[in-house]
Amino acid sequence: TSKSLENAVTVVSASLLDVVSVGKTIDSYSDCIDKHSPRNLIDGENVPSNMDNKWCVGGSKSQWVIIDLEEPFNIYGFRAYDTGHKEDANGNYDCWKIEVSNDKNTWTEVVNEQGRQSENTKYDAIPGIAGRYVRFTPYDNDVNITLRIWEFQVLGVSLGMKLADVDDVELSGAETRTINMAYDLGALSKG
Fold first, then answer.
1. 95/3 Cα distance (integer angstroms)
2. What's the predicted TM-score (pTM) here?
């Protein structure tokens, strides 16, 4: 089962977000080449000195990995360190989707991007969604791809910390507006 989020924006201060994927568990994955395990995606080394510390896989039009965050988090974004950080940027992937789930049965698509191959670091901000599992799927509609990805980060906060919803705001092209937003630190605020 799948669904998607559309036409929603959440503004979150990056200083509130943690990388919640480092050291967690790779639940399953499509494939890997030799020692280039997807475990390298969550080892905390964005651009490692060792050229082997990447997820490398090829031979298919899409590849995927499911990361188990080991507990639910409020997820607000993702950051991937692509091939071009250490190798030829022509090897960067161009199309990808990211889905979030609490049970690995029902998935919500939160990112479906293409046309950003030139970006060595791909950052995707999303409206907040609670989830435990993240499925990252780089793909190409036409040809088999070879991936060399150094790190994949899930950015979020503990479920005890919830950012308040903001009423709908529409802005024209040049218009700016300040939005004050309350947040609740929940259990984090207690000494």
1. 19
2. 0.79
